[in-house]
Design brief:
434 residues, 8-stranded mixed beta sheet, disordered C terminus, TIM Barrel, single chain, 13 strands
Length: 434
């Protein structure tokens, strides 16, 4: 019989057929109406049934498949051989971005030597013998304002993992202004694999939203550094758009190509909406031009348009993957500059969302972050569950001021999924395509 986690659309190219997407396997197949009927009646040939079962289209028992989702995240955690730690190495920054979610926290605050030592001890204790890969993602502020600390931490952990016959690597979420070729070469020697840099459109747009503290535009400096370092590390480019400016991101793609930052030199491009803040939030309360839900209708158009333009030019975008919210992954933590531990970087500094510290360890956080909130009848019956899992905890927090309800993505996926799938078919071979 057919899996409960399918989306089925008409096939524009093949009359009498359907475009079938499995959200559990993220596979795509074009099947005739006859084949779909044979699956439901249990009369499909064993060979074809085996193929479609592998793709997640056919299942032995629909209710059993639904029930299997209850242990899906447990299975991911049991198989995970990675330890992923995001480290807020400082809260200082040389930019003054108008929408910065850390605005109320920022200052000349750096991780102390004592906290660095405790961080290293915490990581080594969590890197149990069954682990193969240690991945650190350095955030700020601007992490490259703590380059010496990043190098010290990485040298120590690179030596530690080498003794364990394991791998160490780190990434940076950086504004790009300090990522010179010299910095790239120096840090790649101790494990730097990739960076993510934000460009908010062409210079005239970007410089308004992401200026230096002096008020000077930063676009030119970032572009110069990207061109000088794209042969050393993987570069991912992000951007934060609003309702009124998302179309201005399209010329940025042409600028990237013109400047030699072509798809073979940029690992991924992903533009995302700026998130607004509720009144009284620690970030700028007067900033209201972003979104507070993925289900806002204007976002459907913006997201699909920009994704199409990115793919059209040959750049990669993130694939749809069965992946729960970051807070549900056991071996993924965020360590703040003061050593406090959280499950998501957007919750740093928020009272009640810390789950311990690098000196004393981790407390039980199941209730704090409402783990398993998606284990309810509505979510289990939803065809999108494997690519949603109750959505983003932070989006729920922005909307409701707490984590007591899910961040349901169904309106967005109802409106956008078919187009997303057709974009993938047109511009790249989807994972698991038939």
């Amino acid at each position: 019989m057919l899996s409960p986690y399918l989306s089925i659309f008409p096939s524009e190219e093949r009359p009498g057929s359907r475009l079938v997407f499995s959200s559990k396997k993220t596979s795509v197949a074009v099947l005739t109406d006859e084949v779909l009927q044979l699956i439901e009646s249990g009369t499909l040939s064993p060979e074809d049934l085996a193929t479609l079962t592998k793709l997640g289209v056919a299942v032995p028992d629909r209710e059993e498949e639904r029930h299997s989702m209850l242990t899906y995240v447990d299975g991911l955690n049991a198989r995970n051989r990675n330890l992923n730690i995001s480290v807020i190495i400082n809260l200082d920054c040389n930019f003054r971005c108008v929408y910065c979610y850390e605005e109320g926290l920022k200052g000349q605050i750096y991780m102390s030597d004592e906290t660095v030592g405790q961080l290293l001890s915490f990581i080594k204790a969590r890197f149990t013998p069954d682990k193969n890969d240690l991945n650190i993602d350095f955030y700020g502020g601007e992490p490259l304002m703590s380059k010496a600390a990043i190098r010290y931490i990485s040298e120590d952990l690179k030596s530690f993992t080498s003794e364990r016959n394991a791998e160490y690597g780190f990434t940076l979420v950086t504004n790009g202004s300090l990522f010179t070729r010299k910095a790239a070469q120096e840090l790649s020697e101790v494990g730097l694999k990739a960076i993510k840099v934000t460009l908010d459109g062409p210079a005239e747009v970007h410089d308004r939203y992401r200026p230096f503290k002096t008020g000077t535009g930063s676009f030119e400096a970032i572009m110069r550094n990207l061109k000088q370092t794209c042969d050393i590390v993987k570069i991912g480019i992000g951007g934060n758009f609003e309702r009124g400016n998302y179309e201005k991101f399209i010329p940025l793609l042409d600028i990237l190509e013109k400047e030699g930052l072509t798809p073979d030199r940029v690992s991924q491009v992903k533009f995302s909406p700026v998130m607004s803040r509720p009144a009284g939030d620690i970030s700028p309360a007067d900033y209201t031009d972003g979104c507070m839900s993925i289900n806002e209708p204007w976002l459907f158009k913006a997201d699909l348009l920009l994704r199409e333009e990115v793919l059209k030019r040959g750049y990669q975008v993130p694939r749809h993957m069965p992946m729960p919210c970051h807070v549900e992954i056991d071996d993924a933590f965020v360590v703040n500059v003061d050593g406090e531990i959280y499950k998501c970087p957007t919750f740093i500094g928020r009272k009640g969302y810390g789950i311990g510290n690098v000196k004393e360890g981790i407390r039980d956080y199941r209730d704090v972050y409402r783990l398993d909130i998606w284990k309810n009848e509505k979510c289990l019956d939803c065809e999108y569950l494997p690519i949603c899992f109750g959505g983003c905890r932070y989006m729920a927090f922005l909307r409701d001021g707490n984590l007591e309800t899910i961040d349901c993505k169904k309106p967005y996926l109802d409106a956008a999924l078919e187009t997303l799938i057709r974009q993938d078919i047109k511009y790249r071979k989807p994972s698991g395509a038939a």
